[in-house]
Design brief:
Layout (H helix, E strand, L loop, with lengths): L59 E2 L3 E6 L24 E9 L4 E6 L8 E7 L10 E5 L11 E6 L4 E8 L6 E10 L21 H10 L2 H4 L4 H10 L6 E4 L5 E4 L1 H6 L3 E2 L17 E6 L2 E5 L1 H6 L3 E2 L15 E4 L5 E4 L1 H6 L3 E2 L16 E4 L5 E4 L1 H6 L3 E2 L28 E2 L1 H9 L2 E2 L13 E2 L1 H9 L2 E2 L2
Parallel strand pairs: 1-3
Antiparallel strand pairs: 2-9, 3-8, 4-7, 4-9, 5-6, 5-8, 10-11, 10-12, 13-14, 13-15, 16-17, 16-18, 19-20, 19-21, 22-25, 23-24
Helix pairs in contact: 1-3, 8-9
């Protein structure tokens, strides 16, 4: 068998060789007598290259189980994270990091650790998604040292969804580097709950109460990764109130059992009393068109859109095509006017008035009222349409059936139906010009019998002069 490793500098190094075992393990202290003799050839070359997964962009695939790693020649290309300094050293970087891509084999918690399997002070981070570069935005969790893990080795767990891709980053604290084994295990249903009383120390991780287990493990992951020891029992006594937990769907689509208040603090959506993550399926919010200013559209989840702040355009909408982020007047069902995009207007059950329209010039009233024209004619129209016809709106509740526009001086018909307070030659000429049948109501038909004739002429002549 041939193995290779990078060494950081000239010096003395040890190589341990032993017989293989059925389980592939290696045991120290095996005697070289009694036929257990080995030969080993060691060569040292001048050059040593970093691992192929030295950068985020070149992350290699990792699967459930144990994987050997070497950061001896690695460089640093990831960002700093305050949460990675969980032992308060003041150093927030994961130095000399290497990267792995992991596709979740379950929906639950992904456990990643180097606990007691690395010869240097490790740091581990897990990110949501496999896009580079990474940032605090998609950091799920990070760990420097886990209590009882030797040499400053690490362990953590993070919520994952089956089939989704996650980045795993391994490096060291304060420039530490070396060899080790990283273990990856996807635990369906999550690390909580599990067998064991939360108020009693036991050698297995987690405890039976989902809420208490989640609460304690958020404070000390050792309790859900290694064992539920006396420290975990003490944390349970201090922080477990007995309030019932329920399924909480987080923004990344994962499910954790939390109280309603804790679910809200985590930005999740509570699934209601009695719900549990073992029977609840959470889905991630789908992006939709988000208008952030006049004419500017970005595809975002409704929550991210509202945080900008922006205006979500509704499920299934996408930027581009016929969607526009320019506001226009929208007549809502209650006859009020609001400035909305076409999509939001339709979603609100309104009627979009078209590009360039404005509520200052658009009326959404559909209630008709009596409108008197200068001719004395009456029409039931909206106030706005009445004004456009140079008429006089008579107000809400009025109707032409009550004949509200009757002439006080019916013979003063004037040219172009413009009454001037005098019955004179102008009115005579108007009447003669309209001689014959007319469609009621018509101002020239003074007696309103449907025909303009000598009866109307005599009525006009008898009223000659100033109107009363």
């Amino acid at each position: 068998k041939t193995i290779s490793a990078c060494v950081a500098a000239p010096g003395r190094y040890r190589a341990f060789v032993s017989s293989g075992t059925p389980n592939g393990g290696i045991y120290e202290g095996i005697s070289c007598s009694g036929g257990n003799r080995y030969s080993i050839t060691v060569t040292c070359e001048d050059s040593c290259s970093p691992a192929i997964n030295d950068s985020c962009a070149n992350a290699t695939t990792i699967v459930d189980g144990a994987t050997f790693f070497d950061t001896t020649m690695a460089t640093t290309d990831g960002p700093t994270h305050a949460s990675c300094d969980n032992v308060a050293t003041g150093d927030t970087q994961i130095h000399d990091d290497i990267w792995y891509q992991y596709t979740a084999t379950c929906t639950g918690d992904l456990i990643v650790d180097t606990c007691n399997s690395a010869g240097f002070n490790t740091r581990i981070a897990v990110y949501d998604g496999c896009d580079c570069p990474v940032s605090d935005t998609n950091l799920l969790t990070c760990n420097d040292d886990l209590f009882n893990c030797e040499s400053g080795s690490s362990a953590l767990y993070a919520p994952v969804i089956a089939g989704n891709c996650y980045l795993i980053r391994i490096g060291g604290r304060s420039g530490a580097r070396g060899l080790g084994t990283i273990r990856v295990n996807c635990l369906g249903g999550g690390v909580c709950p599990d067998a064991g009383d939360c108020n009693t120390a036991h050698a297995t991780p987690s405890c039976s109460d989902p809420l208490c287990c989640d609460t304690v493990c958020a404070l000390d992951q050792y309790c859900c990764l290694v064992e539920w020891d006396d420290v975990c029992v003490q944390l349970a006594a201090q922080n477990c109130t007995g309030e019932a937990s329920e399924a909480c769907c987080l923004a990344n689509g994962s499910c954790v059992n939390l109280t309603t208040v804790d679910c809200q603090i985590q930005g999740g959506t509570s699934q209601g009393p009695g719900s549990n993550c073992t029977t609840v399926t959470c889905t991630t919010a789908q992006p939709e068109a988000c208008c952030i200013s006049e004419g500017v559209c970005i595809n975002l989840t409704p929550a991210d859109c509202a945080n900008l702040p922006g205006s979500p355009q509704g499920p299934g909408t996408t930027c581009g095509g016929q969607l526009t982020c320019f506001s226009e007047a929208c007549c809502l069902p209650d006859e009020t006017c609001a400035m909305h995009t076409t999509e939001l207007c339709l979603l609100a059950g309104g009627e979009a008035q078209g590009n360039g329209t404005d509520c200052a010039t658009v009326s959404c009233s559909t209630t008709l009222e009596a409108c008197c024209l200068n001719s004395g004619e009456c029409f039931d129209v909206s106030p706005e349409d009445c004004i456009l016809q140079t008429g006089t709106p008579l107000g809400p509740g009025t109707q032409c059936s009550s004949n509200p526009c009757a002439f006080t001086c019916p013979t003063d018909i004037g040219p172009l139906n413009a009454a001037d307070g005098m019955v004179d030659v102008n009115d005579l000429l108007v009447l003669l010009a309209a001689w014959g049948p007319c469609q009621l109501p018509c101002a020239e038909d003074i007696v309103q019998d449907g025909v303009i004739n000598v009866t109307d002429l005599l009525s006009l002549l008898s009223a000659w002069g100033s109107c009363p």
